[in-house]
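Side project, low priority. Logging it here so it doesn't get lost.
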Amino acid sequence: MACPFFRRADSLVRQPSVTVEPGAQWNLEDEELSLADDALTLTHLQMAIQLLTAPSNEDLNTAVTSLVAKYRQSWPNIHKLKLDPKFFKSCANYDYLADIQDLLLKMDEASASEILVLLGEELITCCCTGIIERAFRCLGTDLQEFLGSLDGVYDVLKLQEDDVTDTGFVCAGDGELIFTSERPVIAWLLLGSLKALTRMLYKVDVNIKIEPVEGDARRYRYLFSLVKDSSQTLQLGRPGVAAKQPETMQRSNSANASDLQMNSASFCKMFPWHFIMNEQLELVQLGRGFSKLYKPYLADFGCLASTYFDFKRPKGLTMKFRDIVRRTYTPFLIGLNSPPGVSDFPAIGLEIKGQMVHCPESNSLLFIGSPFLDGLDGLTCNGLFISDIPLHDATREVILVGEQARAQDGLRRRMDKLKSSIEEANSAVTKERKKNVSLLHLIFPAEIAEKLWLGSSIDAKTYPDVTILFSDIVGFTNICSRATPFMVISMLEGLYKDFDEFCDFFDVYKVETIGDAYCVASGLHRASIYDAHKVAWMALKMLSACSKRITHDGEQIKMRIGLHTGTVLAGVVGRKMPRYCLFGHNVTIANKFESGSEALKINVSPTTKNWLTKHEGFAFDLQPRDPSCLPKEFPNSNGNGTCYFLESFRNPALDSTQPLEEHINAAMKTISEGGDA
């Protein structure tokens, strides 16, 4: 193996493993006077990270002793690394690690890096016990959270100690850690320490590849990979759980803030201590912090918020949606309850302090807050980890700084900024939600769009007496053969723009457009006795719109239309680009009436004709066709049925000389005033 020390030992300034400054000694005795013997403090966290970045001479000698006992046969001269422990007491500032570096270079330069890695593993095995092991465990529930917390915690500790050295950690992504140090020997020692820590804390065996960062000789990159497959970067999730790939979202290239999107997974990750309640005070969304605690119990004990949370403040609050909305300007303090029958719930009594926000666009309540803690031991006693507190949360600094008065003052300022930030973010999210809801309403019926927005399951449903319209352009293939694609798209865009406006006017649902085929239905989302009338009027207006449009070569656009009324099955199909589709024999029959129609004609089925003539006050001009024109798929029990051509419509209240549009508008006004539209 190549020599790990690309700079010779004599090119480095020898420095003590532990920098000793007046008043900088870590002494647990003072803290033990005011804290319980097993209380985890910031000092323990400092000592744990020091074991990785600047191990003491005593710890190094303990690790060397264990290393010599295990590998004396592999490297006979390795015993030279061992020293008498009494020597360290007489030379407090002795740089043992620098001597280890020099001895390895003289003894076996090719194996130096391997020995250092093994020494790092022994350092953790021998010295990472008791309270130090607990300190490491509090950094995260899995290796990726551990690396991320190592980055943030070490940065805070350096700031508190006024450390001006460049030593530090940067978690650069999944399975990647960057370490900065002036001493290559520390970098190789850290590799072994990380291996042993991963095995000790998370029962995961990993390979760690170390490589210098290009352009900076002081920085080293550590790439983690599974032992079984060293070619793949390790997905650093919880042990035994396959890492989920994040859902791909369509990205917007807009620079407008209102166009930016945030899905629920990102919001739950950014704000782990939030939940959303509906009008029944049922939980519809939980942040990652709450989800980790309560998700296993939701299926058994329901989603009622009062089952899991005790609303301690504001005082005298009644658990009603409207009463909570009135108190959204008051700080909330919420205690966590143990789920029914669960005796070993780790976070019982944990309090979350925050605010409640009313979201009128979904008529829901958003609570967002932070754990109300007074120190590192309070965190671990409640079954939490440093990684459970987001980086932007002032509570994280309160835990790490440790000075209560200073922390409370900083928390107050940060909470004010956070409140302002949340209000701004909530305003932006509100605008974005309105856009998303509007988009859903364009694609799906209102009832279906609302369920999709709330994340509810949507079951297929049977709808009786749905009137379906199918249409296509006669000779569309010939038109396409004589025109460019852009001409065809421009023609359809102008025509379908008019049709879409008709859908809004008549309140009918546009099912789909495929090429020149245009399909609508009425009676799905809002049933009415005039569903057939609306579709018939729309068909007449569609033919009227065609008469005003021409193809690229000057010919009039000619459409043929078919109408049929019957029972259909409707449901949402697909997860990616879902569609609201219609199924059933009557959908096929409606299509047959369209294919059996003629240019500039509306072919109406007997069932639709019955609905059009069932109610008085509406004069549809229906001309019967030859019975042979009736599709063979249509159930014709008496054998006397036939289909009809819808020629026009007249409102008896208007003069017959008035244009068709006036007759239709007057009829729509009549049914709207009657409340049956």
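Brief comment: The first strand starts at residue 168 and ends at 173.
Revisit when time allows.
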